[in-house]
Each structure stands twice: as structure tokens, then as C-alpha cells.
Specification:
By secondary structure, the chain is mainly alpha-helical. 65% of the residues lie in helices and 6% in strands.
């Protein structure tokens, strides 16, 4: 079985249940008539499982395949809810990265500043 390449570059075991959970969460944000059935979810998960058996896939690639699967099954409202959820998570990650950079500067713990000029005392 292939592995998932996380955003930080490390490899982890593929867990199909995570895809199922993600689609179920998106299901909660739409009307019943717009939700993916268990059969459709299984079809999407199975398609991704076949792909990952051949090649390792990144988290982003897996999420793209989920979107494609939802749209192929004409679940456009659900696909939109899933895309919006992805976008919000991306913004949250970016916000956390920005906060970390600011904290490093405040604590004088920025690797970039320490290595910028080896003749400079970064504490001053």
C-alpha cells in the first residue's frame, strides 16, 4: 500500500477512514438532498485507494481527488462545502505560520536572522 505525503514532507500510512470522515463532515454542512451516500463515499475512497496503491499521494492530491469524485457524482453543493472547508483550513495553517514567525522574532529565535550575518550579535 502506498503512503500519504504530508504537508511537512513526511510519509505516513494511508488511512481510508480519514477520507470517509472528511466527506461525512462536509455532508453535515449541506441539505440531505445534497449529501453523498455511503455508496458514493465508498466509490470515492476505493478510487483513491487504487491510486495510492500505485503511487504515493500528497494530502493535497488526495483532497483534489475527493473534489473530483464529488463533482463526477454531481454533488456540486457538497463539493463546494468541501472546497470551502479546505480553504478555511489552509488559511488557519497560514495564520499559525505567521504567528510562529512573529513569536520567533520576539523571542530572538529566528534562524534566518541568526545566520544572516555571522558577525552580528542578534541579541543587540
Amino acid at each position: 500500500m502506498g503512503q500519504v505525503i504530508k504537508r511537512d514532507g513526511c510519509y505516513v500510512k494511508y488511512e481510508p477512514s480519514k477520507i470517509n470522515v472528511a466527506i461525512q463532515k462536509a455532508n453535515r454542512d449541506v441539505r440531505d438532498s445534497e449529501q453523498a451516500s455511503e455508496v458514493i463515499i465508498k466509490k470515492i475512497v476505493d478510487a483513491i485507494t487504487k491510486r495510492i496503491a500505485v503511487n504515493n499521494l500528497s494530502v493535497e492530491e488526495i483532497q483534489d481527488l475527493v473534489e473530483e469524485g464529488l463533482m463526477k457524482n454531481h454533488l456540486y453543493v457538497l463539493a463546494k462545502a468541501y472546497i470551502v472547508f479546505r480553504y478555511k483550513r489552509a488559511m488557519l495553517r497560514k495564520s499559525n505560520d505567521t504567528d510562529d514567525c512573529i513569536l520567533q522574532l520576539i523571542r530572538n529565535d529566528s534562524k534566518h536572522l541568526r545566520e544572516e550575518n555571522s558577525n552580528k550579535n542578534t541579541v543587540l
